[in-house]
């Protein structure tokens, strides 16, 4: 393995947007205001890379992200966790 990392993870990096409330009754009404909208990273590869990094491993994530605010958020989240992002496309 190269000097950059112990583990290479490849796969999805996405944005999860949980919205509160998640009460099933909201689906029976035409409109329900959200109390809170949360932006968080997700995706199988992204989650695994973050977990491995928190466990002290040097991780490289290989994934595709958009050239938009969501992509910038995912990249900055990885960089803050010490994940190598040089193969983000």
Protein topology:
Blueprint lengths: L6 E4 L3 E3 L2 E2 L15 E2 L2 E3 L1 H11 L4 E4 L6 H12 L9
Parallel strand pairs: 1-6
Antiparallel strand pairs: 2-5, 3-4
Which keywords apply here?
89 residues, two-stranded antiparallel sheet, alpha+beta, 2 helices
Model description:
The chain is of the alpha+beta class. The chain has a domain at about 5-15 and about 45-80. The chain has 2 helices and 6 strands, in the order βββββαβα. It has a two-stranded parallel ribbon. Strands 2-5 form a two-stranded antiparallel ribbon. The longest helix has 12 residues, at about 70-80. It is elongated and about 55 Å long. The chain starts with 6 loop residues before the first strand and ends in a 9-residue tail after the last helix. The mean pLDDT is about 90.
């Amino acid at each position: 393995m190269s000097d950059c990392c112990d583990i290479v993870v490849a796969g999805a990096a996405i944005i999860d947007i949980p919205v509160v409330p998640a009460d099933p009754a909201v689906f029976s009404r035409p409109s329900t205001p959200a109390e809170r909208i949360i932006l968080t990273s997700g995706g199988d590869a992204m989650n695994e890379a973050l977990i491995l990094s928190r466990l002290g491993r040097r991780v490289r994530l290989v994934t595709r992200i958009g050239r938009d605010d969501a992509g910038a958020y995912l990249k900055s989240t990885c960089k803050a966790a010490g994940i190598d992002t040089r193969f983000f496309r």
